[in-house]
């Protein structure tokens, strides 16, 4: 397990030095994870994130730097990757882990958490076991730390929902994972499946939802409270609100907005005012905190998530983004700063649209 010392691999020049104290690690079921993880949604996704195979060399460097800095939780999914690149995220993660140039101890400490899609043809437990085995092959490991249901079907296919629970049980009983998790589950459905898994002796380790300064309303607060009651970790995905909390984008400069579907989320004017114009007061408070701390807006936003007791999993497409995200480690916002940021977020007139699959 990572501690406070550093180690240099003479062949690669890679220095392994965790950027946090051991006591900052979070318990996630039967294992411990770094206070911040890493999400691989963009790996293989051309539509939303502009992925190209030419990025792979730098993505390996991103992985190397993250592991050397003490990041040991990597979140992926069997549906990540568009078109013919479906499953690319898991494949890259497996390759990068195999080719990690640092110490075997650091590589062995990596915890891979994948999400299994609720495809309509995945019904029988054997199909879920087969899906998990396919993820294991792509990731190049014998066992996953965490297998998560990517989303609930309770809203549109309630009969399949119960079958998915049996699928999770089967995956665990086959010894393919250390624990199981959920993604996009609200408190009521979480309580139901939590009780079911408990009866079957299957440890529920984590629940993953969209969570940030722009996704912190009553719904997400209730999920966090339910996780606390069950003693499970909350993994915060999109802690930078798809980039809106980085300060890179401006409503006054349409040319600064990302293209494609992600740009539509930034505008999202069909049900009220778009997010960006009302975001400036929050960004100003974030900027004041960042200047005082000598940090960036992204680092402040990620640190705020950690201060809420969550494990944020920002992504990165290049070394610059990865290095910036790592700057969120090793320090903590004060209670007053957390309160000021939360109050400023409360005044934003339009927050992020929550994932449509998140249940009640």
Key descriptive features of the protein:
360 residues, alpha/beta, TIM Barrel, 8-stranded parallel sheet, two-stranded antiparallel sheet, 12 strands
Q: Structural class of the secondary elements?
A: alpha/beta
Largest sheet: 8 strands, parallel
N to C succession of SSEs: EEEEEHHEHHEHEHEHEHEHHHEHH
Looking at CATH, the homologous superfamily is NADP-dependent oxidoreductase domain
GO molecular function: oxidoreductase activity
InterPro entries: Aldo-Keto_reductase, NAD(P)_OxRdtase_dom_sf, NADP_OxRdtase_dom
Keywords: Oxidoreductase
Protein name: NADP-dependent oxidoreductase domain-containing protein
Give a description of the structure:
The protein is of the alpha/beta class and 360 residues long. The protein has a single domain, classed as TIM Barrel (Alpha-Beta Barrel), CATH 3.20.20.100. Helix content is 40%, strand content 13%. The protein is built from 13 helices and 12 strands. It has helices at 46-49, 56-68, 88-98, 104-108, 125-139, 158-173, 187-199, 218-230, 260-267, 280-293, 297-307, 319-326, 335-346, and strands at residues 7-8, 15-16, 26-28, 31-33, 38-39, 73-75, 111-116, 144-149, 177-183, 204-210, 233-237, 311-312. The strands form 3 sheets. An 8-stranded parallel sheet has the order 5-6-7-8-9-10-11-12, with helices on one face. Helix 7 (187-199) runs parallel beside helix 8. The protein is globular and about 55 Å long. 44% of the residues are buried. Mean pLDDT is 89; it is low at 269-273. This is NADP-dependent oxidoreductase domain-containing protein. Keywords: Oxidoreductase. It comes from Chlorella variabilis. Residues 35-344 form the NADP-dependent oxidoreductase domain. One of its GO terms (molecular function) is oxidoreductase activity.
């Amino acid at each position: 397990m990572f501690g406070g010392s550093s180690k240099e691999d003479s062949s690669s020049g890679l220095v392994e030095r965790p950027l946090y104290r051991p006591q900052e690690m979070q318990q996630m079921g039967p294992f411990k994870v770094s206070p911040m993880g890493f999400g691989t949604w963009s790996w293989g996704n051309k539509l939303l994130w502009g992925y190209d195979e030419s990025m792979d060399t730098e993505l390996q460097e991103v992985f190397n730097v993250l592991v050397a800095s003490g990041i040991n939780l990597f979140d992926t999914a069997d549906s990540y990757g568009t078109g013919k690149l479906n499953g690319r995220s898991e494949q890259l993660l497996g390759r990068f882990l195999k080719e990690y140039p640092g110490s075997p101890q650091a590589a062995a400490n990596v915890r891979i958490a994948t999400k299994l899609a609720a495809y309509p043809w995945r019904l029988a437990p054997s199909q879920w076991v087969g899906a998990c085995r396919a993820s294991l092959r792509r990731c190049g490991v014998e066992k996953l730390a965490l297998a998560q249901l990517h989303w609930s079907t309770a809203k549109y296919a309630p009969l399949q929902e119960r079958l998915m629970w049996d699928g999770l049980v089967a995956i665990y009983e086959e010894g393919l994972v250390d624990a199981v998790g959920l993604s996009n589950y609200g408190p009521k459905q979480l309580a139901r499946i939590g009780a079911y898994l408990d009866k079957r002796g299957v440890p529920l380790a984590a629940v993953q939802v969209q969570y940030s300064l722009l996704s912190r309303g009553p719904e997400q607060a209730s999920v966090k409270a339910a996780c606390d009651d069950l003693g499970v970790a909350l993994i915060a995905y999109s802690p930078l609100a798809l980039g809106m909390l980085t300060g890179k984008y401006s409503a006054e400069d349409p040319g600064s907005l990302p293209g494609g579907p992600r740009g539509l989320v930034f505008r999202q004017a069909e049900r009220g005012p778009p997010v960006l114009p009302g975001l400036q007061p929050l960004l100003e408070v974030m900027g004041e905190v960042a200047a005082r701390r000598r940090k960036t807006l992204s680092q402040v936003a990620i640190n705020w998530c950690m201060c809420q007791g969550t494990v944020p999993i920002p992504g990165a497409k290049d070394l610059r983004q990865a290095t910036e995200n790592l700057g969120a480690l090793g320090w903590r916002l004060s209670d007053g700063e957390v309160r000021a940021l939360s109050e400023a977020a409360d005044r934003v007139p339009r927050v992020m649209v929550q994932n449509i699959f998140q249940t009640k």
